[in-house]
Amino acid sequence: MRLVGRAPAVLLLGCVALAIAACTRVGAPGERASGGRNPWTIPGVVRVALTEEPNTLVRMFSNQASADDVTALLFEPFFRYDNHERPVPALATTFPTLANGLISKDGLRITFPLRKGVLWSDGVPVTAADVIFTWHAIVDGRNPVVYTQGYDRIKTIVADNPYRVTFVMKQPFSPAVYLFSEGTFTPLPAHLLAHDATLNNIPYDAHPIGDGPFVLKRWVHGADLIFVANPHYWRGPPHVREIDMKVIPDPTTQVNELRTHEIDFIDGVSASLVGDLAGIPHIWIQRQLQANYRHLDFNLRNPILADMAVRQAIARAINVQAVIDDVYHGLGVRASTDIPPFSWAATGLPPIPYDPAAAARLLDADGWRVGPDGIRRKNGHRLSLSISSTTDNRPNADAEALVAQQLKAVGIDLTVKNYAGPVLFAEGGPLYGGRYDMSWIVNTEAVDPDNLAVWGCAYFPPHGANTDFYCNPAVDRYLQAAETTYDQRQRRADYTAAWRIMLHDVPSDILYWEQNVLAGNSDLHNVKAAPVITDFWNAWEWSI
């Protein structure tokens, strides 16, 4: 999430930089400027808090949420995703399906008609050559891209004409329809980059020429990224002339700067601070369910957790709704699978119920007997486990403490063993190295529900992200089948069948979907929170 304000000196510099806007004084609460707007509003300028500064402005080199926000401003994807997760045609004009003939019957050819009249911000047309160049840059090994998954399933890309490309697939792969769209890697300008040996750490990465609604005017590292309207944008000039992203890592500072009107928009108010918004006049508040899910993972390489009955008991002993309400301020919706409820692939399966009595019966039947200290034992082994999350996160620490209390009630001893984020998620770290018992983390689900690399038998680290080390051949068959058909009804049936098995096996307890809270200046209009990728997807429609 994002947003931060700035010091008065930086604000002054930002105002001086505005060629056609004057700075407006901050008025008293309730006071209105002429024309009915708030006196602190700068017409045509949106000041946004950014929690994390992107390491680069080229998405293929970053997995940061801020990179998705910046990409939405600078580049035009094949498709954007609206506030209902529906694909919105952008650089591509028609979403390919079997029904419209853009996917061949054998699933090996996927065609995308490209929009004529889209220009790079230097005035050069965007064509099929840019798509093909970018694909080669992703898969040819010359660039340290953050992933190649999906793009490496393409055998070649054919330019049917300058405004039509066809992916020739190595085998049918249903998620390929989402490649080059929002949240993935958007096409880059071949006419500027084709002669570079690598695209990493070149001047373009910090000063890109894009084809999106805005262009970068200035990047003051650690302080601001200032974007101005792209006069060549194919939809026409955006309704705001400038978006100023202010780097503000501290969530309390973000809310304070909204209160003092130094910023206009917070995308992701900290859950503990949502109550403070009621004291800020002249703002609007939006809540949006997001594709971010909290889950409790089990390391099946641990002999205790390899026992399915123990996992089933733990899942039933945790009062998830109490955790949502008491720790995360109610900003969550109970989950059952890793497919969000607003997805076309949503299974409708119910979550594992909270039933501590059933948890105790499962453990009794499995031979775990309560000892004198209240903790269960079996064959001389104490039912003692650890739980891990990231350090310096008070809500997570509170949640772990509450879970430990709930598990102790059924005879399970739980200790907290947290790590700094870069350590916990490092290649070879506790998660990917299998040196943990249980983990309390959040994942972000992609638009496509394909999750074979998370649960599949062949995807244990370092070959994938199956950090639960779970393997069930029946689940593999369903997930593999879902990858190779483009029929959404069949895919939904496959995911439902796979998750019916996993809800029994409990390799992970999928707990809840997060709700994102946005807050903005009451003069800022047409911000439409999206459940996936970025809330900047329609920034060309914003007005202030």
Summarize this entry quickly.
The protein has 544 residues and is an alpha+beta fold. It has helices spanning 8-17, 65-74, 128-139, 190-193, 251-259, 308-317, 320-326, 356-365, 394-408, 421-424, 452-455, 473-483, 488-505; strands at residues 45-50, 79-81, 87-89, 109-113, 154-161, 164-169, 214-220, 224-229, 242-247, 265-267, 283-298, 332-334, 369-370, 376-378, 381-382, 384-388, 413-416, 438-444, 508-521. The protein folds into three domains: 1-74 and 212-282 and 522-544, Periplasmic binding protein-like II (D-Maltodextrin-Binding Protein, domain 2); 76-204, Dipeptide-binding Protein, domain 1 (Alpha-Beta Complex), CATH 3.90.76; 291-515, Dipeptide-binding Protein, Domain 3 (Dipeptide-binding Protein, domain 3, Roll).
Give the termini distance in whole angstroms: 21 Å
Number of domains: 3
Q: Which value, in Å, is the CA radius of gyration?
A: 25 Å
Largest sheet, in brief, is: 7 strands, mixed
